Amino acid sequence: MAQIVIRNIRKEFGDFVAVKESSFTIEDGEFFMLLGPSGCGKTTTLRMIAGLELPTSGDILLDGENISQLPPSERDIAFVFQMFALYPHLNVRKNLSYPLTSQGMPRKQIKAKIDEVAGILGIGDILDRPVGGLSGGDRQRVALGRAIVREPKAFMMDEPLGALDAEFREHMAEELRALHDRMGATTVYVTHDQLEAMQMGDKIVVMNNAVVEQFGTPREIYDKPATMFVADFIGSPSMNFLDFSGSVAPGQESISLSGHDMAVPSLREGASGDLVFGVRPEHVHLSDDGTFRGRIIAAEYLGTTQIVTMETPNGELKARIPADRIATVGESAGIGFRGDTVSLFDRADGRALRSALNEGVLGHG
Amino acid sequence: MSSHSITESSSRAKWIAGSLVILYALITMLPLVWIVMTGFKSPADAISYPPKVVYEPTLEGYVNLFTTRTRQTEDYLLANPPENWADEIVRQYDMVIVGPSKFGERFMNSVIIGFGSTFLSIFLGTLAAYAFSRFRIPFADDLLFFILSTRMMPPIAVAIPIFLMYRSLGLSDTHLGMILLYTAVNISLAVWLLKGFIDEIPREYEEAALIDGYTRFQAFYKVVLPQAATGIASTAIFCLIFAWNEYAFAVLLTSATAQTAPPFIPTIIGVGGLDWPAVAAGATIFLLPVMIFTIVLRKHLLRGITFGAVRK
Fold first, then answer.
1. Which fold has domain A4-223?
2. Which chain A residues touch B223 with a CB distance below 8 Å?
3. Nearest Cα to Cα of residue B249 among B168, B187, B184
4. In which domain, by residue range, is B79 found?
5. Which of the residues A13, A15, A52 would you substitute to probe the B interface, choosing the one with the greatest number of B C-beta atoms within 10 Å?
6. What is the pLDDT of residues B112-152, one digit of tens each?
């Protein structure tokens, strides 16, 4: 299969820049997620890898070969479209055989290949049906079948689950991941759904406004966000941002929030001005003896946990705490943080400050 | 079925709608029915007043349409008994058939020019519409407007320049000349209609074909064309109807070799007096190809007219 290297890729449509100099590497056999809000350039990036758009500048290397200006037919990359794009005038079997007939494969071999793929996907009984009457899930399977039947070097998937209803999506996501694990083919998957990305991906690229914000494993991206955008986009509820101003120096291990000392991972760089103290809701706890205090303004009960919204001197804060702690609106409570999980950001450019927590991760972005 | 349902109409509403459609059909069909009926009348029945609805049908009109006849002396007629049923019909007027008329030839001209120009309009129109629909073409909007602007005046307004141009190019009274002329008139309609149809076809189908290893042109004819069949069929019908029925240019630019049926049919009147049954017979036969073409493509036409109204 294949390793894909994206190097300084850029795409302009007239005056509009869809993707700004982006670089990342997709290792052989990885299930790779391109994640970001709509319009961030993730689909354009995917289409450039597949050859449906040609990059304005930059290189795409597939197993070391520069394919950035080749037509899609010469790249040996399969693509699964969001709306499936099954050929409506052909039946399931013909749809599946389409990529094989273009290679001039003998008819007998095509038939054997289709039967094999139909077996893998469990669509053997609908092979002679027209695609028009198929259910969403079956269409999805046929679209996948059309992609895997030719054994391409890599798969591109553009929000393939987006057109399915929520109930079925979960099931299909599992099926897709299982299929990938079985075939081990390099897969690039575009989604705007952070849960889908975390759940299915080996690695994630988070894009925003045409640039790559961060590139890493789901765990790295969640625990060690490189920018405020990533911290905010990933996780629900998202990371808390408490504003403070002051200056920090390399080696420092605590900062002062409204006069209260808070532990942070040992800093590796200094900064000054408007800074942000970022902490995930699950790393916030309420303690009656805490000196840093806030007032509870809302509590959402979720069964095993609850989300408590508090007002603090440094801004609003959400805490995910055990459901058995009784939280009454209006109550004043002390707040504590798990210091080793805290990220500090520079408010001006949204970048995370390097620290013992994230060193070694930020290099990628 | 509730009486207040929006989607299911009540039986009374259906009855009223049905009656209206039938009434409308009767009104619009009446002239056609009358022409077909007149074709089977004798000349006397055709001009009788009050008009005859019940009459004895005869093929006289058709015989007169397809033949040239001449009056003969009684001796000649007695010496040469009629050879077939057509002969017998003309003998009533002391005439004999001396050969075929020009109608067959004119009709074939109409077929060649009508279908030829329709094919050319659709062929060029589909390619142009695809290009306009899919590629970034500089000044695309201006070009489309220019193409449409050729229809902003009645084509006959440029008849004199075309007449002069055709004369110096040697295209007057040729099949090629008429095919080119009707194509030029129809192409704007074809480009605009087909662009609309092709715009409706999601690009993903072609992109899927490109990914599946086909070239752009293969993707066009293997994937886009089958999808556009509906639009192509309905556009073809519109083009054919125009080219088939066109009268003014045909009168002006054709005479001996490339004359089409529309300018020919009225000339029948002048040959043997007011031969209305022959004119009606000519009109009836003239109607058939367009009718057959439309019936053959009817399934596509009906889908084509409502195409794009609702997203599937």
1. Rossmann fold (3.40.50)
2. 87
3. B184
4. 56-101
5. A52
6. 999 999 999 999 999 999 999 998 889 999 999 999 888 88
